[in-house]
Write a structure and sequence with these properties.
Blueprint: H1 3-9, H2 12-22, H3 29-36, H4 40-53, E1 56-61, E2 72-77, H5 91-104, H6 108-127, H7 133-149, E3 151-156, E4 159-164, H8 170-175, H9 177-192, E5 197-203, E6 206-213
Antiparallel strand pairs: 1-2, 3-4, 4-6, 5-6
Helix pairs in contact: 3-4, 6-9
Length: 214
């Protein structure tokens, strides 16, 4: 994490707000207060200060179709907040890939990243055990969460899914979106041993990637 930004945020309660919002697509002050066990005014003050520092912005969230009334104001993270979370690549990584492309041709970055992911898959296969898809998914979600992906295993009407609310490879994903998406999907498919569909979304500073299977 960026220690300067941590110092700027200061209070641990503000970090709790940031961490909770990271796992959502935005929340109202009331929802944050309930989720974190804070008073409404306490949550509001933290949100106002985080917005002033540039870590949050606001948007008008429409009411669900079953409810009436005006859209309510919700808070969400900005791109600046991304720097508070783990990063596994940086400008040097991109510079090395660019240099490889300049020296060995346009497919060099793809080959290098393919090798990195193959090694990563081999390491995960050695650690992820289980006779059922759910058991393997639980183990893999724990690994991804420990790597800083803020991964959670969930189940909805469509079946099992792992949702990642952060990517430590954000800069690589921005530079090689199709390639990184394909490599991540292949990694999930091989580790879980079932077909996996990858669905990525991003709004403001919020990121989520859903891997559906089972």
């Amino acid at each position: 994490m960026n220690q300067r930004l941590i110092t700027e945020i200061g209070k641990s309660q503000r970090l709790r707000v940031v961490n909770r919002l990271k796992r959502t697509q935005g929340m109202s002050v009331g929802e944050l207060a309930t989720a974190l066990g804070m008073s409404y005014m306490g949550a509001k003050q933290h949100c106002v200060e985080l917005e002033r520092l540039g870590y949050l912005d606001t948007w008008r969230r429409p009411k669900p179709a079953t409810q009436t009334g005006r859209p309510e104001m919700a808070y969400r993270l900005t791109r600046k907040a991304h720097e508070l979370f783990p990063v596994a690549s940086n400008e040097m990584t991109l510079a090395l890939l660019d240099s490889a492309q300049a020296m060995y041709g346009p497919v060099a970055p793809e080959k290098l990243l393919f090798i990195v992911f193959q090694r990563k898959i081999e390491g995960c296969l050695a650690r992820v055990k289980g006779e059922t898809v759910q058991a393997r998914a639980e183990a893999f979600a724990a690994i991804r969460d420990a790597e800083g992906c803020m991964a959670e295993l969930e189940q909805d009407e469509a079946g099992l899914r792992i949702v990642e609310y952060h990517t430590p490879l954000a800069d690589l994903l921005a530079a090689y979106p199709a390639l990184l998406a394909r490599l991540e999907q292949e990694m999930y498919t091989r580790v879980l041993r079932v077909p996996v569909k990858r669905e990525q979304t991003g709004v403001s500073g919020l990121y989520s990637c859903v891997f559906r299977f089972g």
